[in-house]
Specification:
By secondary structure, this protein is α+β, with helices and mostly antiparallel strands. It has 20 helices and 8 strands.
């Protein structure tokens, strides 16, 4: 149940005409009253002799009874109440009860108050009603309706329980504006998978990921095919922007533009500029991404390795950083997901887009991000975009699985942090994003993990036993669980690769597991495979990697020393 208090107005007749009219896109069907302050109130939708003016005169009567100078300038109050898409159909009688509860809860017409405001609830669609009221009471006093938005939300949670509707999380005022009913109906008529508002929000967010200045940002918007209008001051300074889809037109055939601030609070030009300003100075504790992933791993594969390292660094501090630092890293994680969504291959693109789309809600809360602490993640997002699209197989595909594995744990950690802070909507969005990442991981990891699994199964028995001994020595508390997992052969092959490169599997295993608790992971072996291959700088795609001890892999024998000594991060649940 989604209530929305709209801006107050000065003309009751105008709102009534809209509610009973066809709507902006002729989406209003069978408009009629479901409830009102007076059971005998005229209903222009059902009574042929009733007019809009008849209803308006009665609603405005207490206002008109006041001397002109005492009448409030904006006396029209407007609340819409919408059911969730998955909610069952509600009858007129049920909507009437909901309307009465809303006007009572908000102070428009408290129960038993015979001198309350006059109001009327109009239904012109299956899934919502509009309540119009005049803010002068029958006794001539103005209604006291402070915090009407918060009170309507509180009552909505009670209504959801009483009617068995979907339980929504209480809003905190940081969410992006939802598409209107007219926008949704228009998208349905035009067979669009998203409303223009949602498509533009997603496209602008993707375009902003990892940008460093206005020129790059607006170039990306244009490259995405959007119509862009920049708003400038007389001095020539850029003040803001608005965007439109080329094929989204109004009745006059003109593009329908949306300002960045109306798409999402953090997509206004001043908010995006904060990212660029923060990039000018490196924040303490944000080390640059792993330079070893450069020449050895060029292109999309290298960008994915660097992104994995940046995510790992964020994970190491997300549990013990300040709230502002954690919020910054969650914001940066959103940019990485946006960049992955635009650069990944077809097998994972759809799920990554959904993961980024829903995680957007988790990036905004009343905890202000300390910009600069997201620098490493923003640089990772920039690298992903600049490296271009990744292939679905080979090193590109395998490193995609690697970075999704790391992103899953960061998003899960974000969900836990938001839950601890009682950020219900943000926590729910992060959990939903994690599920999309789980699905994307399975698609990306299927082939490279199958290759490693086969190689592990073909290890000579003495070498396989030696890898099991390394495991027992490094993590005796987890060894039994890991050896029983279907993914053990893939982990054994990875340990053999480390051994062949001259590394110390026991040392790396102990170091990797110490940094992150793994008891709750569904597949500990899968998680360790990617962390070990990244830390030891092994190829993510093991398709052609030999298993001889002196194989020329040029792999680092020990993990990056900058990663040593880091404390354990948050508890999490693996795939």
């Amino acid at each position: 149940m989604i209530p929305c208090v709209h801006d107050r107005g000065s003309k009751t007749i105008g709102l009534i005409a809209y509610l009973y009219g066809p709507g902006r896109d002729e989406v209003h069907t069978d408009p009629h009253l479901v409830a009102a302050w007076d059971p005998l109130a005229p209903d222009p939708g059902r009574h042929p002799d009733a007019t809009y003016a008849d209803l308006q005169r009665l609603l405005d009567q207490p206002v008109e009874a006041l001397p002109q100078k005492e009448r409030p300038a904006e006396h029209v109050w407007h609340l819409s109440v919408r059911a969730a898409p998955e909610d069952p159909y509600l009858t007129d009688e049920q909507w009437a009860d909901i309307a009465r509860r809303m006007v009572a809860a908000t102070g428009i017409a408290p129960t038993g108050d015979e001198a309350a405001c006059r109001w009327a609830a109009v239904r012109h669609a299956d899934d919502h009603i509009h309540i119009v009221a005049t803010l002068v009471r029958e006794d001539g006093r103005q209604a006291r309706i402070r915090q009407d938005g918060r009170r309507s939300q509180t009552e909505a949670r009670k209504i959801e329980t009483d009617y068995g509707l979907r339980r929504l999380n209480t809003g905190d005022g940081t969410a992006a504006k939802r598409p209107t009913s007219a926008e949704r109906h228009k998208a349905e008529r035009e067979n669009r998978p998203q409303t223009p508002r949602e498509e533009l929000r997603e496209t602008v967010r993707h375009a902003a990921a990892g940008t460093v200045n206005e020129t790059e940002f607006f170039d990306r918007l244009a490259a995405a095919g959007l119509l862009v209008h920049q708003r400038t001051a007389p001095s020539g300074d850029l003040l803001g922007y608005k965007v439109a889809l080329p094929d989204d037109r109004n009745h006059d055939g003109e593009p329908v533009f949306y300002a960045g601030s109306t798409l999402a609070p953090d997509l206004s030009l001043p908010e995006i500029r904060k990212r660029w300003t923060a990039d000018d100075a490196e924040a303490p504790g944000d080390a640059p991404t792993d330079s070893a992933a450069g020449p050895r791993w060029p292109g999309p594969a290298g960008a994915r390795r660097r992104a994995s390292t940046a995510i790992w660094q964020a994970l190491l501090v997300i549990d013990h950083g300040t709230d502002e630092q954690v919020a910054a890293r969650i914001t940066g994680a959103g940019e990485v997901l946006d960049a992955l969504a635009t650069t990944s291959a077809a097998p994972t693109r759809s799920e990554l887009r959904q993961a980024a789309f829903v995680f957007e809600r988790a990036t905004r809360s009343h905890t202000q991000a300390a910009h600069g602490h997201d620098r490493a993640l923003r640089q990772a997002a920039r690298d992903l975009v600049r490296s271009g699209p990744a292939l679905g197989g080979g090193e590109d595909g395998a490193t995609t699985a690697m970075v999704i594995d790391m992103a899953f744990f960061l998003v899960t950690a974000a969900a836990h942090w938001h839950a601890r802070k009682n950020h219900a909507q943000q926590a729910a969005a992060a959990r939903q994003s994690a599920e999309h990442l789980r699905t994307a991981y399975r698609a990306a990891a299927r082939h490279p993990m199958a290759v490693l699994h086969r190689r592990g199964q073909h290890l000579p028995q003495p070498r396989l036993q030696r890898q099991a001994a390394h495991l027992r020595a490094a993590v005796p508390e987890l060894a039994g669980q890991i050896l029983a997992e279907p993914g053990w052969p893939a982990l054994a092959a990875t340990l053999a690769d480390i051994e062949a490169a001259g590394g110390q599997p026991t040392t790396l295993l102990a170091e990797t597991t110490r940094r992150r608790e793994l008891e709750t992971a569904d597949s500990v072996s899968d998680v360790l495979v990617w962390r070990l291959r990244r830390t030891a700088d092994l190829p993510a795609d093991a398709q052609k990697m030999p298993l001889t001890r002196n194989a020329p892999t040029r792999s680092r024998a020990l993990p990056d020393r900058r990663m040593r000594g880091s404390s354990d991060g948050p508890r999490h649940r693996g795939r």
